[in-house]
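Make up an example, fold above all:
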Amino acid sequence: KKRKNQIFLLDVVEKLKEKVNKKIKLIICGHGRLEDVLKARVKELGIEENIIFAGYRNDLYSILSLGDIFLFSSLQEGLPVAVMEAMATGLPVVCSSVRGNLDLIDDKMGGYTVESFDSGLWCDLIYGLLMDGNKIKSFGEYNLEKIKSYDRSIVEKKMRRIYEFYER
């Protein structure tokens, strides 16, 4: 989907590739009508060795556990399950500062919420994280703790209290 804005991340990877080295990988999961557009952009940027199109997956936790950082550049979100899954895997998150993302990621505590779509800025933030293993670890641990408040049993209890309040 266009609103997921993965094409933006390709420009970020191109910049990161120059800054870090050729080892940088971005895994894109899922299928969609923009897949051909993304693949064409990958070729245009010359980053074929840096991008993995993993297709539809049933093993997202396995995929997420391969990563160091979760990137999420959506233009619009509700409550993004993908970000929640990344948090539950203990990953720091660099994401766009849109509703939903802002509800989940506490800036400079669980990752970075970025207001602009400036690929240089994203590159710098990601590079800074990659060069600071302690920050990756502390952001990931923070997310692991924070996501616990979204556990189904806790949410159900909160919803039950809300309904009971309004039934009075």
